[in-house]
Amino acid sequence: MLKILKYSFYDLMRSRWSYVYFAFYLLLGIVLLFLNNDLSKAVITLMNVIIVLVPLIGTIFGVMYYYNSKEFTELLLAQPLKRSSIFLGQYLGVALSLSMSLILGLGIPFVFYGLFKSAAIWDFSLLLITGIFLTLIFTALAFNIALSNENKIKGFGYAILLWLFLAIIYDGIFLMTLIMFEDYPLDKVSLIGTMLNPIDLSRTLILLKLDISALLGYTGAVFKQFFGTSFGLIVSFSVLVIWVLLPVWRISVKSKKKDF
Amino acid sequence: MVSIQNLHKKFGKNQVLKGVDLSINDGGIFAVLGPNGSGKTTLIKSVLGMVIPNKGNIEVLGNNIKKNSDYRHKIDYLPQIANFPSNLKVKELIKMIKDLRKNTNEDERLIKLFKLEPFLDKKLGNLSGGTKQKVNIVLTFMFDSPLIILDEPTTGLDPISLIRLKDLIQAEKTKGKTILITSHIMSFVEEVSDEIVFLLEGKIYFKGTIQDLKTKTKQPDFEHAIASILSNNHA
């Protein structure tokens, strides 16, 4: 698996898109920091961008890489390699190169700005960690979609729909349910609802860490009570880990049954 | 060498293989023939583990292929269409495959044989079909495996390269290897193969030497023998 990972990673490092992605984050980091002049405000703005953009890029890149490397995959399949290691290697190659673009692109301007002397370093690290989690989750979901759809256009369509659902539609439905059932105690429901969507979960985690839970409205207090404790933090990270492991597991199962 | 029992494969509603039983002995050149869509490539891909059969059993060198992928160390496979990652250079591709399988120096001799030196630093996406096929052949023949599977090996080759390929196949045969070929070029099949396996509508219609086939169909030459099978079954 490590050899496949190496070649996929190497392949992506030579692709123009990794640099575009890297350059985008570099630019974003520089602009936010030097126009804002306030590290924690920059982190909040960054959060809003990351929460929406990282899943989108992860999804599109994952689907695109899978379909584009079909030839490479077929070449590998005839070699004495395990199927699961071929696909997991490719998946990790994509996810790691995306994570690296994210970490370096945002990290470099922040380091130059004086991150290590600032108190925002923990907020910033949490931001990067959730960013990496989101990359791992959405790239894995994208690989799942691509493995299940031979048709490229369909695959892209489903991938975009998935992103749209989790990033936007889910929140809408969630909000509607909260309004419809506002007469009932909803703290548990909203907690579970947040847990089930990795994007919402990441957003809540960062917001609470930034101590602006007032933004969360009437459930903010409940959230603070839950996510603020170390128990809540452990549960949230476990849920994120499950969000990574489940699709990765399905990649390995699905790839074993597929015809090429 | 290869033993296949009761192999079934369906793609959606399309039943491609309907109970193939085949055993291929050690040594010699076997040609798998059949009309378009008769399941030649599916059969070969099943042996390689790229297509998962619905039913049936395949053994390669005594190992059931379902259990693990190590048996593929003993197979050299030439795919039908030379699809390679287009942004890799020829040199890098050869190096990568060696890294994934095992090291060998045989590639240098094959590169010289097919005059590929000027292309080593070119990207695979920029090569012509015939040159890609030559790279494909180098990748296949550079490992010294007991079973060689060639899916349409002659595609896009010029006459000189075709002669070199035939020599290469014969040389491998004298080393005692088993070679499995599919091809639509009947003269090529007639020239190189010891035995043929004829697939028709997902089943083995005939297995034996070319002479047997001529006798069976009462035709004087090989091409007409094949044509008579096809016209008798599709008339």
From TrEMBL, chain A:
<feature type="transmembrane region" description="Helical">
    <location>
        <begin position="42"/>
        <end position="67"/>
    </location>
</feature>
<feature type="transmembrane region" description="Helical">
    <location>
        <begin position="88"/>
        <end position="112"/>
    </location>
</feature>
<feature type="transmembrane region" description="Helical">
    <location>
        <begin position="20"/>
        <end position="36"/>
    </location>
</feature>
<feature type="transmembrane region" description="Helical">
    <location>
        <begin position="124"/>
        <end position="147"/>
    </location>
</feature>
<keyword id="KW-0472">Membrane</keyword>
<keyword id="KW-0812">Transmembrane</keyword>
<keyword id="KW-1133">Transmembrane helix</keyword>
<protein>
    <submittedName>
        <fullName>ABC transporter permease</fullName>
    </submittedName>
</protein>
<feature type="transmembrane region" description="Helical">
    <location>
        <begin position="226"/>
        <end position="249"/>
    </location>
</feature>
<feature type="transmembrane region" description="Helical">
    <location>
        <begin position="159"/>
        <end position="181"/>
    </location>
</feature>
From TrEMBL, chain B:
<protein>
    <submittedName>
        <fullName>ABC transporter ATP-binding protein</fullName>
    </submittedName>
</protein>
<keyword id="KW-0547">Nucleotide-binding</keyword>
<dbReference type="InterPro" id="IPR051782">
    <property type="entry name" value="ABC_Transporter_VariousFunc"/>
</dbReference>
<dbReference type="InterPro" id="IPR003593">
    <property type="entry name" value="AAA+_ATPase"/>
</dbReference>
<dbReference type="Pfam" id="PF00005">
    <property type="entry name" value="ABC_tran"/>
</dbReference>
<dbReference type="GO" id="GO:0005524">
    <property type="term" value="F:ATP binding"/>
</dbReference>
<dbReference type="InterPro" id="IPR027417">
    <property type="entry name" value="P-loop_NTPase"/>
</dbReference>
<keyword id="KW-0067">ATP-binding</keyword>
<feature type="domain" description="ABC transporter">
    <location>
        <begin position="2"/>
        <end position="226"/>
    </location>
</feature>
<dbReference type="GO" id="GO:0016887">
    <property type="term" value="F:ATP hydrolysis activity"/>
</dbReference>
<keyword id="KW-0813">Transport</keyword>
<dbReference type="InterPro" id="IPR003439">
    <property type="entry name" value="ABC_transporter-like_ATP-bd"/>
</dbReference>
